[in-house]
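Suppose a colleague, Dr. K., hands you the sequence of a protein chain of 328 amino acids and asks what its three-dimensional shape might be. Before reaching for any lab equipment, you can write down a predicted structure in token form. Begin with the sequence itself:
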Amino acid sequence: MCKILSLAAIAFLFATAVAAAGEPAIPAGDCRILFLGDSNTYGGQYIEFVDALLRLENPQVHRQLLNLGLPSETVSGLSEPGHAGGQFPRPDLAERLERVLEKTRPGLIVACYGMNDGIYYPPSPERLKKYQDGILHLRQRAAAMHAKVLHLTPPVFDRVPIQAKTLPAGLAEYPQPYEGYDDVLEQFSAWLLAQKSLGWDVVDVHGPMKLFLAAQRAQDPNFRLAGDGVHIDATGHWIIAQQLLRHWAALSTAASEAGSGQQAVSAYPHGADVLKLIAEKQRLLKDAWLTATGHKRPGMKAGLPIDEAEQRAAALDSEIDKLLEPAK
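The predicted structure, expressed as tokens, is then:
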């Protein structure tokens, strides 16, 4: 269950809001927005919140937010020894990127990588370079397809809930996460944010999430955003959604004041029902598109054929349209 945000935490989130003036506007309605990332992106709650709030704010605009996040994936191409008990190495975005871009033809890519890219080892110049090279490759291939890229810094790694399972510095291998692994994610985040000086479109979610977590834990030492240190809960997803919507100047005052994504959509008539339908549509389409584009991650749910999934998605969109019809 999501906890109510403290006044201090809400004040912080307002303080980190991006000023609308001079910032990128939300892409036009006919632009397909492709989300790439690891298990937090595949989980997709932040995408569902964003999709629902964009629709609720402008019911006549139908943007297509397509989630092709893949659990365990890296952009660095790295995999720790014995990953998943030795069942399979981490999938590498580069293996599927061309197929994904060719088949989806996005106008904008929102990419959230980093959590897996340091393979849960201590900071390393070599692993940082692999992460940077992977990000640059993504940008190069996106540019060749005339697609823009918006980068999200990685979420926080929180060692507190799994303190007993973390390992200290100085080991040859890390079958369990390095206790200071969030230092790696801060390093990745700092590099991404520095690229804004080159004109990159980057939204920081790591910083806001880390400060929010500290503010909450000052009141409740047992507070957590990720029970396993990695996979964020609905509150963590809402923080990501807030930062992205603010960057696009697409978050209403009522939604800004909400302490959760569910509260935000409930500020609109039929908001909870719209979110439920959008979540169903998102989950339907992501499995269909992951299956259609292919990947090397075993254990994933097989999706419907694209044509069938698109037909069902269209029916869900029609239900949403009916809910949002102006009262006569």
